[in-house]
Amino acid sequence: MQHENGKIIIAPDELQQKILEILMKYGVKQKDAKIVADTIVEAEMRGVKSHGINMLPAYLRRIKDGGINIKVEPTIIKEKDFITLIDANGGFGQVAGEMATKIAIEKARKYSLSWIGVRNSNHCGMLAYYTEKIAHAGLIGIMLVNANPTVAPYGGMEAVLGTNPISVSIPTKNIPIILDMATSSVAKAKIYRAKELNEKINPEWAIDENGYPTDDPSKAINGVLTPLGGPKGFGLAIIVDVIAGILNNSGFSHYVTSVHKDTTKSQNAGLTIISVSLESFLELETYYQKVNELINLIKASKPRPGFDTIYLPGEIEAMNREKAIKKGLEIDENILNAAFESR
Ligand SMILES: NC(=O)c1ccc[n+]([C@@H]2O[C@H](COP(=O)([O-])OP(=O)(O)OC[C@H]3O[C@@H](n4cnc5c(N)ncnc54)[C@H](O)[C@@H]3O)[C@@H](O)[C@H]2O)c1
Q: Name one GO molecular function term (predicted).
């Protein structure tokens, strides 16, 4: 571990071990602690800082207050052919998410398609963690997760919907294409960061308490986020709330609570993972050759002024990962200290 201008450079393995030790001190079973530590380190490696080590203090608080039940195992409560419904039983979202991913892969191999729901879950972190595994298994992965309300409906000014993220992973011959995005204009963590750095924000990201666009992060924090692309993100957020929340008989809208608040009870979030086998549709060789051609067409197209290169979804994150393996992870000292001292 090295210190450099308010940053700490730490090897991914070392960070993983430290998180594992902290979680186990809190009584988390080793196998569960390993999954949670893995998701956090993967998010840091991919540069998805909003879902990395900064989340650890919130998880520890929830363990202490009972909001994350570390004694339970997720259980299968319904199963029919390629469909499985899991109850996370108020445990770690990461543990239920990992179990859902494994079943999604096994069932898509057996039935060509799988649809796995999870109810009564806590925060599961970065969705790409799960969908990337599905792509590496040679399958297309789709994941939807609902979250507590922080986003106004299109045309509205009250938080009714969550940032309700969607991730889709596409296997290729090289690194998978991984779209992983909130359905709000921006993740709330980016507004908090702008406030810390005393920066203005894009006025399209949020509205203030009176419903007007604002470039002031403090006003945005007291106001609400806007949906991604207006009515389009609004529509996607509703779809996520219905499929991941209502269909799984889990919470929706304000029945899902924040990871940072109501720390004594489960967040009651829902997760859905859908997986599809490629060879059920066409010869694998044809699929890979055509996806490769599409990638080449995109990458060879001319960047517009202000852009040097065209990146595919997940490509920048994969580059961040490579860099982290070679040079270690660069983490704000304050954030790392807050996580390690929260014991
Ligand atoms: N578990 C939860 O409750 C929850 C809720 C909300 C968000 N999240 C997570 O938050 C994370 C961040 O979400 P976000 O919406 O802020 O992501 P983002 O805006 O950083 O990225 C969204 C997508 O755009 C792609 N992208 C970004 N810049 C690009 C570029 N220059 N060229 C091409 N593609 C580019 C990324 O690869 C990614 O697939 C995600 O991992 C998501 O799963 C989780």
A: oxidoreductase activity
pLDDT the model gives residue 192: 82
| pLDDT, tens digit (0-9, with 9 covering 90-100), for 115-137 | 999 999 999 999 999 999 999 99
For the chain, list residues with pLDDT below 50.
none
**Which ligand 1 atom sits nearest the alpha carbon of residue 312?**
33
- pLDDT tens digits, residue range 178-189? 999 999 999 887
Written as one string, the DSSP assignment of 220-267 is HHHSEEPBTTTHHHHHHHHHHIIIIIITTT---GGGS--TTS-TTS--
For domain 2-65+321-341, give its CATH number from 1.10.8.60, 1.10.1530.10, 3.30.420.10, 3.40.1030.10: 1.10.1530.10
Counting from 1 in the atom list of ligand 1, the atom nearest the Cα of 310 is 32
Mutate to test the pocket of ligand 1, among 41, 42, 44, 51 (most ligand atoms within 8 A of CB): 51
Lookup result for tokens 């570390």: 70
pLDDT at 187: 83
- CATH of 75-184+228-277, picked from 3.40.47.10, 3.60.15.10, 3.40.50.2000, 3.30.1370.60, is 3.30.1370.60
Structure tokens at 55: 């989340």
